[in-house]
Every structure is written in C-alpha cells, then in structure tokens.
Give the backbone structure.
Amino acid sequence: MIKKLLATTLAATVALPLMVSAAFAIEPSNWEAVTKEAKGQTVYFNAWGGSTNINAYIEWAAEIVKERYGVTVNHVKLKDTADAVNAVVNEKAAGKDDSGKIDLIWINGENFVSMKKQKLLLAPDWATKLPNYKFVDFENQSTITVDFTEPTDGLESPWGGAKMVFFYDSANTKKADLPLSFTQLVKWTGENSGRFTYPAPPDFIGSSFLKQALTETISDPSILLKPVVEANFEENVAPLFAALDKMHPNLWRNGKTYPKNLPAMNQLIADNEVDISFAFNPSAGSANIEKKEWPETIRSFVFTKGTLGNTHFVAIPYNSTAKAGSLIFANFLISPEAQIHKQNPKVWGDPTVLNADKLSKVDQKALASIERGVATLAPSELGPKLPEPHASWMTMLEKQWLKRYGVSN
Amino acid sequence: MIENSNGNALHLNNVQIVLNDKLLLSVNETVQAGEVLTLMGPSGSGKSSLLAYIAGFLDPVFVASGDINLNETNLNELPAELRKIGLLFQDAMLFPHMSVGQNLLFAVGANVRSKAERKTLVEEALEVANLSDYFNADPATLSGGQKSRIALMRVLLSSPQALLLDEPFSKLDTNLKAQIREFVFTEAKRRMLPILMVTHDEEDAKAAGGKVITL
Amino acid sequence: MLLRLAPSFALLVLLGPIFFGLWGTIEPAFGHFPALGSDTYSLEPFHKLFQRPGLGISIALSLWTGLGTTLVAVSVVAMFIAGWSNTKWFASVQQLVSPLLSVPHAAAAFGLAFLISPSGWLLRLVSPELTGITRPPNLLILHDPMALSLMAGLIIKEIPFLLLIVLSALPQSNAKRLSHIVRSLGYGRVMGFLYVVWPNIYKQIRLGVFAVIAYATSVVDVAIILGPTTPAPLAPRLVTWMSDSDLLVRFEASAGALLQLGVTATALIAWWLLEKFGAKIMKQIAVSGRRFQKDKAIRVISLITICLTSGVVILGLVILAIWSFAGYWSFPNALPSGFSLDSWTRSWSGLISPLINTVIVGISSTLIALIISLACLEREARTGNKGGSYMLGILYLPLIVPQIGFVFGLQSFFLVFDIDATFSALILVHLVFVLPYVFLSLSDPWRAWDKRYGQAALSLGHSQNSVFWNIRAPMLLRAILVAAAVGFAVSVGQYLVTILIGAGRITTITTEAVALASGGDRRIIGVYAFLQMLMPFAGFMLASLIPNILFRGKRDMRASA
C-alpha cells in the first residue's frame, strides 16, 4: 500500500510539471496558470511605430502590465508590419519553432491572411478565451470576427475599430462644396486641380482609398465579398479605372508622385498643399489638432452612402517565446480601462472594440464623457460602414494600379 | 653624469649593402673610442642605409651583410633598442608632446630607479647644455641650437656605447654650426664614444679630425 | 605574436560577412529556400522579377543617379581643388569637411527636403512678400522623375567625402611644386593643376570614387526621402519587395539583389570607360598647348558650388532644429506660430534606449576597428611590410559591394546560428563598415608620421611597445581620435544593416528616425534627425577637444601641426 502510494506520488511529481508546463504555454482558459507563467516574461510587441501618440499609448499600457503582472512589454517599432511577418518566416526557415523573437504583432487584413494561411500564428482559438473578451462587441461589429472577409477564428484579438473619414480645412473650403461620394470627388478634383491626393498603394491607407472607390463604382458590390474571379476582373474594375484615369491628372503633383503614407498626407493638408485628406480613424482630425500638426479649423465629413470600416488586431506568432505574457498583454488591451483611455483623442482617439452595454455603469459613463473634439463626428453622423472586400481583390487591384500609375514616368 | 670610459670600439667587418642586386657600399673599418669616422658621398650612395643597418632600422628592401661588433658584442641579431647605439639626425626629433625635461627623463635608463636621481641626472644634463631653466619648456619654443643641444643630451643620457650622426649640423645656421659641432664632439669624446658621422660638409669632416671615407 | 595575426583577422572581419551574405542571397535568387517550401533551383525568380512593371526604368534610374552623382561630385571637387588649393578659402573649407561628413545621409536628406519642397523653408522665407504666394505651388520638386533632388541630396554628402580623401592624397602628390612649375609655363591655374597634379591624385582616390558610385546606385534611405516614386530606383523597390506581405516575393527580391549587384557593376564599368575617355581627351588637349589662362569663371563657380552644398547641409540642420521645437506652423509663415518642447517631451522616453544602443554599438565597433587598425599599422611600422596593394582593394570592398546584396543573406545566416538581434552580431556587422573607414582615415597620418621619432626612441633603449605607448600613440592621438569619430559616425549612420540584423530589437537613433520618417510628422523627424546628426558631431568635437586639453602648451601638437 505504502509502496503503491509512494510510486503514485513519485509518478505525479515527475509527470505533473510536464503536464502543467505544456498546458500553461497555450491554454488561455486556465487564466490563473497563464498569469503565473507570464510573470517575469518579456514580450516583444511588434507594432508600427510611426506615430508618437500610439507609441506613448503602448508605453502606458506596458507600464501597467509590468506593474500588475510582472510582464515586460518592449515595443519594437516597425516601419511596416510585413517586416515582422518576414521575420517569422525567416525563423521558421531556421527551425526556430519555439524561440521566436516576435511575441505579439499588431496586424490585420492581408498580413493576417498571409500568416494564417502559412500557419505562422498561435492556434487554436485563444482570442475568444481571454477573460476580457466578454466586453467585446462581436455582435454588432462584424469586422471583429471576419477580417477582410477572412474568418478570424480567434487567431487574433481585436484592438481597435477603424472607419474611413475625410477631413477639410473649414478656413479654405466651404462645407457646401464638399464632395460626398467618390464620383463627386472625381468631379471636385476637376474643379480644384492639384488639391487632392492619396498615398500610393500598397500603402495601407492608399489601398483602402482604392477599395472605397471600387466599392462605389462596381456594378454589383456583393461580388467583392467573394474571391476575385480573374476572368471578370478587367470588366469589373473598368468603371473604377475610368474614373481614376479622369482624376489622376488633377491630383496633387498631377499624379507624378504620391505621399508615402497617411502621416505624409497629413503634412500636406497642414502645409495647405491639399484641401482634403482622409484617415481610417474618425478622431484623427481632433488628435492632429491636439498635436498642433493641424490648424484648429480642420473638420471632418463622410460619404453619404458609407465608407469602409474594419478592425485592427493583435496576433501571436506560433513560435513566440513569451506566449503567456502576450496573452496577458492582449487581454489588457481589450480591458475597459485600456479601451476607454485609447478612445480619448488626446491620447490616441482610436474607436473602441467594446460594447458599451456590456460595461459597468462607471465605465459606460467614462466612455460617454470622453470629449470628442471639434473635428470629430458623433457616432450617429459617421454613416454606414461598408465591408472590406476579400483580400484577393486588393492584390489584383494593387498590381493593376501599379502598372497604370505606379510607373507613369 | 654617467661616464663611459671603458674604451669601446665599433667594428664594421666587411659590411656590404645591396639594393636591387646593386652593391651600394662596402666598408671594413674600426672606429676606436673617442674617434670619429666620417663618411662622405653623394645622395643615394648608401651612407644613411649604413647608419640604419648599424642602428637596426634597415628597410627590408635593402640587403645587408657583414658583422657589426660593438666592443666584444655582435649586434647583428640584436633588436635596435638593445644595441646601445645613440642616434642624432638632421633634425633634433624632440618629442613634441613632452616637455624638454620629459624628453630627457624618457632617455634615462630604467636601471636608474629613484625619481630624485633621474631628475638630478636630467638637471645636470640641462646644465651641461646651458639650458638649466628649461625643464618645463615646450620643445617647440626652443631655438635651433638649443634643440640640437637637448637632442645630444638626450642621446647621452641613454648611456650609448657608440654614436651615429646623420648629417647632424646641416640644418643649422653657419655661425651656430661650429658652436654645436664643437659641443657634440667635445661631449662625445669626453665619454670616449666611437662616432660614425655621415655628412656632405667638408667642414664637418675637418672638425671631426678623424678618418674620412669618400664613397 | 598577436600583431602578426592582425591583418588576417582584419581580412576575416571584412570578407567573412560579405561572403556568407552573398551566399545567403544567391540561394533564394535561384529559387532555393526550403523554409518557403522550395528545395529546387530554378530561374523562376528572375523571370518574375523581369515582369515587374517599370523595372527597366528603375534600373535606368539607379544607373543615372549613380553616375550623375559621381560625375558632378568628382568634377566639383576637382575644379575646387585645382582652383583653390593653398588659399585661405581652401583652408576654411578644409575645416568644414569633417563636420559635414559626420552628418548622416538621412539627416542631410531630410534637411534638404524641408528646405526645397514647395512648402519648404526657402519659399516660406520669401513668401508672400516677394512671391505673392499664399499656397504652396503645385510643383514636382521632391521625388521628381528625373531623380534630380535625389542626386542633389547625394551630392551634398559625397562632396565632403571626396574632399576628405583628396585632402589625404594631396601631400603625396607634390601638388604645390608641380602646379608652380606648370603655371610658370604659362598655364592657367585650374587647367595646369588638372594636367599635372590631378591624374596623380585621382589614382589615389579612385577606390573612394568607386565607393561613391556603388553607394549612389544602391542607396535606400536617401532615395526613400528624396527619390522618384513612380517607379522608384531599384534599391528602395527591393526593400519594399523584401517586406512584401506575400512572402514568395522574397525570391524575386533576392534575384533583385543580385540584379542590383549587376547594376552597380555596370555603373562601375561605365565609369571606367569614362575615365579612359576623359584621360584621352585631357591628353589631346594637353599636347595642343592651349594655356586656358582665363579660368576665373570656373574657379568662382566651383567655390560657389562648394559653399552652396555646405550651406544647404548646414541650413538643413537649422530647419530640422526649428521644426523640432515648432508648434503649429502654417504656410507661408517663415516661422512657426509658437515654439514648444512638446515634440521633445513626447519623444524623449522613446529616445533613451535607442540612444544608449547607438552609443554601445557605435563605441564597441569603433573600438574593435581601432584596435585592429592600430595592430595592422603597428605591425607595418615594425616590419616595414605594407601588405600589398590588394589589401587596399579589400578594405574598400564593403564600400563597393552594395549592402543590399549581402545583408539580406547575412540575416539568414545569423538566424541559423541564433545570434541575430544580439549586440555581438550587430557590432560585428557594423564593424564590416566601420573598419574600412577607421583604417583609411588612420593610415595616412600614421604612415606620414616621421619614422625617425620612433628610431630615436628605440635607440634610447626603449622597446617597441614602449615606443608605441609613449611616443607613437600620443603623437598620433589626434589622428586616432578623428579616426574613432569617423568610425562612430559611420556606425551611427547605418540603417539597413541595423534594421535587419538588429531585427527591430536593437533599435538605434537611425532606425527610429527612419521608422518615424514613415510617420511624416516634421516635428518628430526634426527631433530624430537633429539627434542623429548631433551624435557624430559630438564625436568630432571630442576628437578635437581632448588633444587640445591633453597637450595644452605644446605648440607642435596643435591641430595644424
């Protein structure tokens, strides 16, 4: 009897840590274990580093998880999210299946699809098992569960919402003269030559503008939700390129060059080089005024028939060295505390992915009391949210664009 | 001052220097203690190469043969720093980052340990050179003649057993030349050093008073 | 003896990374990259590469930029040196060379962009008073399709580089005597110099000129800031492909990296032909006996060009500094409506760790480079063995082989050995670029040093080591510190290498600056570019201050001595 007991105990002491460590590494439903495992870990969070506001926000969040969970978060400031994707590929090539240098990536759309398809992401579903997922507004924001028509399957955790919004300087342009659809915008550029532009695709914001234009010009928008059929592609995009052909000679610098990205375009409206700018964040205008980048006369507007909307996420590479720590950080990012702080235009002004109705009374009040700022439209004024086309459309569209306008010299 | 009165002699036994298979010079001489051997000849005749060979600095492009003996010691295989051969150039070559005193201290042999003793030796040398107040002076502020005298004192403080002079007076003014020449020869002969001098100047040869070889 | 191994060690440090890096690039270029599921070799990547729209234009742009930049920079430097050597003007320009050289390319490019763009400072300064302009004109100045602003951005930085190597070649060229002789034969100052002195100088700076060609044909950061975009030159496009979210594009990118090597080689060959042609023409003109005595115009033009290029860099730095303290600043106001420390305080917390990393990597790689260089030179001084002319070629190799060609591949190698993103790997790779500059800038003063000082010290009974520590090193301290400052500046300026080998984990002030450059906010760019320029500058300041303090009261140890 004693002998048997001893043997069992021995076996248990040997086997238990093995079982536990295997479970701890990837089981978010056992949150207590995750918390324990995460303590002392260092998370390398690979996120676009082009905005000091966002960088400061990440730093704020990192300080809190350091203090509360003993998890150190280092922000690796990327120029381009694809750099991080490539790094994971490189690591897979080198056989580093459990000692990756990237623990968490800020991601969505094509990069997500690419990593998901190549099985470079931590699986199975972990995002919906995070404790704070209960606050997430997956019921109303369809883009939380479907990222560019690709099901997220819990392989990425939502961080913020995005909707395309346009900006103008009320000191230079009258509200009545604003174009309220893509077709009107083409007409407007004819009358205001050189006063509009968009970042060259494949820049994220430039590509988004193309998608917006495609959604408005295509005869049957529903086909955009399915993979592109190459045979019909030319025909489907013909109206779009006809409009772009008309618009491009009237763009800023006559379409000979384009701003590199969103911040570069932001600088153009600040310098009074263009009259209309746009962003994927409704409070970008107020935030830029706050940063003294834009004049206080900037206001925002949307297209009447709606603009594109999507969600941005964080995802964990399959070979992350600090999986538990990454789960802790991802969970904190969707906490009411972090999301409310983020929505403040003085901080970042990024729309929340949480459902206000699910929050405590106190948090609801805090969320409602955030001052939007003069250049931000009320949620009710933001207009309909158009879905993102299937990622394959973008790939074809970018190629076509590059051929037509990317090598115009 | 350290006196060197043991009567060394510098022997050059069948020394030959060859450049690109061409024989530049061939010397077979002995310089006795306190004597001066003067070498004269046009540029490129290998005079300076001979000095470099004796001192241990010969450029590898030259091929040299023959034995150099200082007293009973063969120098051929010794590195330059162990040959105890003092060198004086056209220029004084005082180290510009050191004061006059430091230049001289640098020359005093490491066998003299005590700081005070080293300093005394240097001060004595400064006195001989008639530059007593110049211990802390910047060498760059000295006149040409003063530099030459310090250069000689520096060499002598390292207690060499032979002295090589490479056109040592050619850059001095005519009136200064005789004075420095006399100073050098007097001090060197007082220490009974064998001296080998390379020069263009007949006057130097005459003042040296020893054998003259023209290449 | 350790000294004996120094040259071989230097070779290993320089050639090893290039060799392994090229290998790591060639493999995927021919379709072999098991991690992406491709185990066989093929020419597919090249087929795909050549189907890229506008590839021909990109290649042409790279060639044009490389050759154009070099031709202009070399001509200006040649004219200037011919027209102004041994003058007061020349001496003052000489003072400017090192500080200008220390300004990183990216910072200079940002400065230029902030000056000359249609909404830039130059137009703001004169508007609306002189121009009547209240809106920036819709003019294509930056990113112009002819790459003129890109070339301008490169030229303002290559001129000081070429001036530096010309200055070090000048003493060996007998310039003063020869030009006096030829002028006494009645030749004009400029042409006379070009006839008799320049060929000799050019022979010595030739590898440096090649480095300029290689750099200008394959530059990434300056091309991103100033270059054409529709399409861009080859190198920046390669970097985009390397980071395409469609990972299979990597194959094409690797093939493209090989193509880049070919483009650079083509530019070098074209230059070589140009050299032959130029020499022939010069000879023909020379034997014609024409004296070209009226060369005032060309002298004035060359002086103005030099002053203009230096002025642009300096003014660019001023405007960067102003933007970093600017509040809202509307066009066409000459100054911002308010000044604030906001941009600095917002950036400060993010700046600390990159600053520390920059210093660690910069100082370590510089120190190692210094030790290797000193060991090689010391060995040379003791044995008189210079190690052949091939050694100089190898030193220049890392400057002539485009970085992009081997750094991608090198990254894969470090991954295999699990040392990517470590300080040692980063320092090692920085060393590849730091060592040549340190050695080249140290070797001239080292070799020019009067050997008789060493002989005098040896004959006083001091050992070789004692001579090194007591005489040679202190006397050459200024040169050593300048070489160190050059090395540090080179390390600070490294972008591509740092981003790839540092894998984003070790960030430096330069990688952060370019990352934020993608964020376009002029104030933040101002902060980073200003700091990026300040660090090397601080190095040069120290290099000139330390000897002044140590050797106070020693007249012959002053800078000019």
Q: What stands out?
A: The two ends of chain A are 88 Å apart (CA to CA). The CA atoms of residues 75 and 189 of chain A lie 40 Å apart. Residues 1-24 of chain A have pLDDT under 50 and may be disordered.
